[in-house]
Amino acid sequence: MVDEYAPPARRLVRPVTFRGVGVHTGADVACVVNPGEDGVRFHRTDTGGTVTASWRHVAATQLQTVIRSDETSVATVEHFMSAMSALGIWAAEVEIDGPEVPILDGSAAPFLAALADASEPVEGGRAVRVLQPVSVRIGRGFASLLPFPSRRFDVGIDFADAAIGEQRALFDFAAGDYGAEVAPARTFGRLKDIKRLRRRGFGRGASLDNAVAVDGATVVNPEGLRFADEFARHKLLDAVGDLALAEAPILGLYRSHRGGHRLNYALLDKLFARAENFQLLPN
User: Fold this and answer.
1) Taking the mean position of all CA atoms in its chain, how far away is CA 117?
2) Binding site annotation covers 117?
3) Does 257 count as an annotated binding residue?
4) Is 24 annotated as a binding residue?
5) Residue 125 has pLDDT above 90, yes or no
6) Domain boundaries, the chain
7) Domain 10-282 in CATH: superfamily?
8) Active site: which residues (predicted)?
């Protein structure tokens, strides 16, 4: 019998500021992450309005996760939320002066380091225990959550690009080191797609400073990869961030193949659609 994992819980003790460019909008943006009482809430200081980081507010999932409430939206929340979830910080008031969370270096590592330094451990906290298997499929991709005593992620990807190919990343929060094994993995894209994506309003802030670019069998970045399987690790990082929109750590086994933001949102929607699928519990 495996003992059930108790996720860590932390609270912010001082504000943290992040500045940078939005990877899709190209807009310069600053966000100040302040201590909060309950939930992670984004306040748009440029336009007014507030939106809570919750699966209930997911408005778009193409190449990013966008949350929206009424006319207020914030895009590309997944890397920030991945770091928050890994640390166990579930309350913050985030003041942001633009439409998109800054991409920084394309990973969760800068978020993780600064947030860890500005927070301290606390006792207690919520968690969501998976009671029944749930799964979703879209085309050739699938994502599932299965009962499991820990927070485990098993992510498979399959790209035609020779530089990426087929990869699998495994991570268990009970045994692994998120900061060393997951957080540094950067977002990525195809060099040949950039002009088309920019015409559609995506990737306007992307560069080799904040993303891994591939061209067939070649990794364009002069420094190369941080891990041999960095692409799969980044998809795992994204999944941690998307599942953080449950507003609590999920105790269960997450599996996906050819997954992404759309599947992750659909999975949360299906998990919470039936009360018998999950149990809310304190740590």
Assistant:
1) 20
2) no
3) no
4) no
5) no
6) 10-282
7) lpxc deacetylase, domain 2 (3.30.1700.10)
8) 261
